[in-house]
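Progress note, sequence design subtask.
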């Protein structure tokens, strides 16, 4: 997709949007509501006309080709199954439109229902299936046509948390097994980071950053990406010679950081550590831009890790993510000191 623009009156849903995907690649588009990610997916599928730009697949210009001629398939959030058809008939429907032989269609239906774990459900109707099973049928139907590009438009949003994780992993397994090129649109950052080869973070119709999940998370190029992907603490810092001094610790800066000398740095909760102060609380304050000492406000246990909310002595609130055993030793009102890992951070105004 090159130079795609799409306008709704004065609103730019896509603004010179550019994305290139390699064969067999799984790309996730992530961003807040209204950022243009679904419009980009619909423009690729042919369901949305563009005002400028081109869409090509394998060198073929598809910009003006109707959706039913693009050999793409979409899995929607709402399943979109035909309620009067059985599971097998739903998967068979797009194959019948392509005038395939009955024998080939039956073999294809059997193959893809087995792939999604519904080989024993041929004769059941959508109303007899759970939400996760219905979405598996929709996935089998999309894959059965062997699309050049599989499009996934927030396909897990209507499912409960446990089923979402199971089906998310299943989609990734099938995509890798079949080698299908896939574009996945979601507002759930954990989904995007877990399954994609690359994650594109969109803002106002453009890609703010695209890269491997770890790169986007650890090395955000701007404050929007850092704040949207994962959680961050915004802490005052002193900037000098390509480093920031935050909570008494000097840490390197990421490219794109402001020059300072006074700025804020964005620090992930898991990059903070919490130590009880005990008798050391009376020690003289150090030269940190913010005194690293504070008081535990609350802890939240989340399995093998926990979050600890600390109010520093200057009233700044920080959130640290620590091992559950560390948090177990802390209670509301305890005095602690916050440390910072020496990993690159982004400095912003």
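Output:
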């Amino acid at each position: 997709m090159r130079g795609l623009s799409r306008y709704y009156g004065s609103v730019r849903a896509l603004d010179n949007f550019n994305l290139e995907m390699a064969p067999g690649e799984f790309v996730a588009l992530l961003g807040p509501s209204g950022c243009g990610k679904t419009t980009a997916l619909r423009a690729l599928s042919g369901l949305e006309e563009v005002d400028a730009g081109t869409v090509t697949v394998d060198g073929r210009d598809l910009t003006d080709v109707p959706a039913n001629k693009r050999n793409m398939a979409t899995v929607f959030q709402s399943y979109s199954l035909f309620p009067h058809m059985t599971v097998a008939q739903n998967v068979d429907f797009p194959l019948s439109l392509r005038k395939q032989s009955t024998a080939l269609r039956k073999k294809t239906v059997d193959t893809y229902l087995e792939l999604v774990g519904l080989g024993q459900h041929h004769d059941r109707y959508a109303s007899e299936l759970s939400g996760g099973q219905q979405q598996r049928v929709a996935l089998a139907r999309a894959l059965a046509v062997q699309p050049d590009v599989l499009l996934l438009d927030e396909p897990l949003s209507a499912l409960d948390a446990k089923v979402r994780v199971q089906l998310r992993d299943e989609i990734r397994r099938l995509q890798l097994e079949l080698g299908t090129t896939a574009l996945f649109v979601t507002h759930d950052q954990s989904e995007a980071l877990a399954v994609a080869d690359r994650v594109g973070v969109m803002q106002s119709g453009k890609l703010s950053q695209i890269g491997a999940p770890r790169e986007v998370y650890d090395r955000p190029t701007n404050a929007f990406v850092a704040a949207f992907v994962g959680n961050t603490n915004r802490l005052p810092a002193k900037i000098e010679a390509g480093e920031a001094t935050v909570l008494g610790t000097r840490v390197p800066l990421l490219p794109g950081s402001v020059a300072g000398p006074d700025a804020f740095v964005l620090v992930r909760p898991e990059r903070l550590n919490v130590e009880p102060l005990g008798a050391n609380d009376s020690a003289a304050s150090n030269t940190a831009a913010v005194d690293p000492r504070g008081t535990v406000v609350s802890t939240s246990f989340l399995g093998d890790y926990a979050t600890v909310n600390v109010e520093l002595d200057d009233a700044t609130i920080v959130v640290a993510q620590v091992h559950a055993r560390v948090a177990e030793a802390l209670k509301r009102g305890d005095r602690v000191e916050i440390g910072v890992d020496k990993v690159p951070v982004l400095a912003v105004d």
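Confidence is low (pLDDT under 50) at residues 283-287. Work on this subtask will continue into the next period as scheduled.
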